Structures are given as C-alpha cells and as structure tokens.
Amino acid sequence: MTSIHAWHFLRDDGTTGSGGCKPEPGGVETWDGPLVMCHSGLHASRMAIDALSYAPGALVRRVVVSGEVVEGDDKLIGRKRRELWRVDATATLHEFACLCAEDALKVSKVTDARCFAAIAAKRAWLRGEITDVDLDAAYAAAHDAANAAHDAANAANAAAYDAAYDAAYAANAAASAAAHDAANAAHDAANAANAAAYDAQNKRLEKMLKELHKEAK
Description:
Low-confidence stretches: none
Number of domains: 2
Structural class: alpha+beta
Order of helices and strands: EEEHEEHHHHHH
Oligomer: single chain
C-alpha cells in the first residue's frame, strides 16, 4: 500500500480549502469517491513549498496520505489522509516571505532602500515594535518602488521589478495573507535565481516549520 509523508494547509479556522470540512487534530480522513486532481480526493504535497501554493490559510499540517494515490506535478490525492501534527505558521510564513523577498532583491540587484526598509518594518511589526499604520506606510513606500521598477521594466530587468513587488507584499500587514505572500515571494525568488533555488527555499521552509512544531510541543 502506498504511504507518502506530505504537507497540507487548512484555513485559519481549521476548515479545509474546499467543502468547509473541519478535520479533527490528529485524525484520519477517508475518501470513497473518484480521485480527480483538483476536484475530488484528499489532497496534499510532498514539498511544503508546493503545498504553500494552494494554502487557504496559515494552519499547516504534516500528514501521511495512503491507499490509492494519484500524483501530479506539485500535489497528490489519495483515499486516506492521517494527520501527524498541525501548527499555526502565521508568523513563520511572514518571516519566510521576508527571507525570500531579501533573496530576490539581492539576486536581482535591486538597490532601492524602500524595498529593504519594508522588510525591516515587517520584522519590527512581527516583534510588536511598530503599529499597523507604520507597516502600511512601509508597504506603500515599497509599492511605489515596485511601480517605479515596473515602469522601467523590460526583458532584462523584469526579475528586479518582481523582486521589488515581493518586498512590498512581504510587508503586507494582513495575517491572513501570510501563506499567499510567502508563496509569491518564494516563487519569484527562485525565478530570479534558478530552479535549484526553489528546492533551497523548500528546504528552508520545511526546516522552519519543523522547528516551529518542536517549539509548540
């Protein structure tokens, strides 16, 4: 019988992204219907960074998918999904977005101080040192920098303008956007470098999530 360790995200209220089901912590889910990718079955991803792309929220689960399993490029579906653990990764995903945005800025050789200031502001906000208003101001400044990069963008510097936008998105104050912004930053940081960077970002993310789980025990 196939048995695959994988990653799966829930909404912040503990419900799944589709159907509104609310899996019990440590429970087992089963599916008796047809297995159709993106439509029916119990979904998950082997890599945390792939699961992040589909995350409806920041509540991450480590799961084992077993039984009949169908695999796609970045996710899989199966008939049985057993939860090993779960943890609220909101703050961790915000920090991950900051790290990815920094990577993209450096690789793309972006020098606009407003982009780096937005990331620094986000970290200060996470530490409770500045208010939402302060963070919004940093976001606005970084967004202006990104718009300026966009206006000058061409095939040679498109990665730079993407990186500038990542810095702005990383400074987004909305906690519910943590997964979305982290996913965008990770993908663009990898695109700014090379395919190997995507795997490196995944290793970083999985390490951060596993360390978060250990701290939460």
